[in-house]
Protein 1
Amino acid sequence: MNTLCLPAQEENIALAARLLRQGQVVAFPTETVYGLGADALDSAAVRAIFAAKERPADNPLIVHVAERSQLDGLCEVTETAKSLMDAFWPGPLTLLLKKTDRVPAVTTAGLPSVAVRCPRHPVAQRLLQACGLPIAAPSANRSGRPSPTSAAHVYEDMRGRIPLILDGGDCQVGVESTVLDLTGGAPCVLRPGAVTPEMIAAAAGECAVASSVMRPLREGESAPSPGMKHRHYAPKARMTVFVGDDEKTAAEMIRRYDEAANAAILCHGALLPRFGGRRAYSLGDTPLETAHVLFQRLREMDGLGVSLILAQGRKAEGEGLAVMNRMARAAAFDIVEL
Ligand code: TXA
Ligand code: MG
């Protein structure tokens, strides 16, 4: 299949909407990462997403809508869900709600809940309006690769697998949406994102964080969100994350870099001048900047053929929680505290 990559202007959005209505798979930008979309209510179309991504069939998809009314008949919108939609939609917050029979089992991987999100990216909004369908869309990477934050990343992973990529430039947030479970007692964050637990608690009165957000699953433990049990956000190189004191971090990174044959360093902007002629790249000066560049940097490291990535982490709080959740998984939880 020939894969077109077209700028996200009106006539190309219209083409994408036509393809979606025909049951095809199209990649499009959102404010978090690029999504791989298809009609969420068409089982065959949704199966084509799983095939293009090589995604395990037990990992459910997020259903994207242009506005709340599109959820009518698809899920039970609770009072808490309404308050959170008032506060954060459109935006990077995904809500897990009880689904109805209209949502096919393949979309939710057989689960009784459905994940729903209303993205705020103008291209995603226009596309959802133009096709008039609820669109199931996982991140547009091949399963196990870092999520794509530019059309070029999507092309790398999806060339020959889908007919069209809408190019809307770089994604602003850079890490995937917050996934919040509203099917149990207190709202519970299953995947941290730009909407933080503190922000959710301020709008909903309370917010828990799943314990598996910052540690590996134990032997035999079942994942609250199926996506967490699969290898995720993985660069090709081995990766170690350093957290704590800047001085000690710089010294330890230099020691390991000089010992290794083919290493690279990813660090906060402020630490960059410490590494002399070594290969070192910036992860920005704030947790939000790190979120914005992280997946891009991991793909660059793959491109350089690096075999060891030495990366400086963030405090696992506020927006830093989302960053550390992704970095910890990319590093298979090889985290050094200094
Ligand atoms: O920002 C985002 O959320 C992006 C853009 C494209 O919207 N999408 C995205 O989708 O990251 P994906 O499929 O890569 O991640 C969805 C996560 C997975 O970890 C999945 O297991 C979880 O949400 N999830 C989806 N439906 C679920 C459900 N019913 N119960 C529990 N977890 C669910
Ligand atoms: Mg994904």
Note: The pocket of threonylcarbamoyladenylate (ligand 1) is lined by residues 30, 32-33, 35, 59-62, 92, 94, 96, 108, 111, 113-115, 117, 119, 137-139, 176-177, 179, 190-191, 225-227 (CB under 6 Å).
Protein 2
Amino acid sequence: MTSSTHVLAKKSISRRKIIGAAGIGLSTLPLMSTQVFAAVSDNARPQAPYRASTAEQKLDIISLDRLAVKARGAIPKEGYAFVSGGAGAEWTLRENRRAFNDYRIAAKRLVGLSNGDIDIRTSLLGLDMPSPIMVAPMGAHRMVHEKGEVDTARGAGLANILYCSSGASNATLEEIAQATTGPKWFQLYWNNDDRVTRSLLTRAKKAGYSAIVLTADALGPGRPEDFIAMGNPFRPDATFGNHDPEKGGFGDFGDQKTALTVKDIQFTKQFTGLPVIVKGILRPDDADRFIRAGADAIQVSNHGGRQIDGVPAGITALPPIVAAVNNRVPVILDGGVRRGIDIIRAVAMGADAVAIGRPFMYGLGLGGAQGVQSVAEHINNDLKSALLLSGASKLSDLNPDFIEIVGQNEEYSTFDG
Ligand code: FNR
């Protein structure tokens, strides 16, 4: 055992002890989402009034890793634990970052490019986008900022990037739609009560969302072990907005349907007439099956390592999925995308766009809407610089010839946020 694996093993043992003491052993975590949500409230400690950030400022960002370190010191510890952690022993969470190193950039030299030649614009499902980045769907933004999703969506609009609204938002989908001036998609958590599902889809279409993301890999909110050990301190004053009866909603968010099938892809498409993106795909045969069922795009994702530990990194799953998709529909990648060079690798290996999660939450916590805008601007600038240094002028110039596959031989040593 190397010293680093020894440290990790020790870490996971001590975490199991904590959970055992709290009476919430991992093996006893219920599979049904209704029960998962029941467990959330049963285990939650009575909460003192929770105040998150009210910051509203542009951020000077050197890197998203450093931003995560700043966020850890600035946002409430409950919010940070909720956002930063992953499922189980967090192997997949770490792997989402490490695995990018399996793909080295074979940069080209003396290709006659300068800054003015660099163009990171792209298009996705009919949207013209200033860059291939989007805000991944994430629930419960009021864990890090008082304005929650309204400010995240406003920040995405300030940067004109695509905002994907989570079905687990604290704000309503209508409040979020109004807050962003940019393009927007709605991510659906299917409810056991069909009336609730239909109502959410109808509302999303009416509010102007241009596509529906069907999350296929989640049975409830991610609850990292550090968060469980704190007693699942979700804010009692921040509910699931889309189900709030005072705001036109109904139904129990926790009553999620777990028995989803490809028929649900077909239903979503027919019912809304909107494109459907299936999110959470890690297998090429799943991608093929879902496209045959009508999926308009595939999102390769392991939910930021928050649902099941032990599955591969998105970037590892990407190449065989790209081969199976064979240009039939666009492919989106998420999980651990933090640098322009990560996006170069993803696009060179066939991704059309990337979704980014946690850094936008940190931007929100540290700077509200302007913080979110700063994160988008930072990653776009980093991508421009990475493209120039790779020897390509635009995203469509990238292809597997820019990548050298080296296999798993390196630990990612930088702090993982
Ligand atoms: C998520 N994610 C997520 N996905 C989804 O489809 N619906 C959801 O409600 C949520 N909620 C959520 C909350 C938080 C706090 C996080 C960090 C993530 C997963 C998300 O869409 C995306 O797959 C990952 O966040 C991408 O990984 P990175 O960029 O965070 O490493």
Note: The pocket of FNR is lined by residues 82-83, 96, 136-139, 166, 168, 187, 215, 218, 222, 279, 301, 303-304, 306, 334-337, 355-358, 361 (CB under 6 Å).
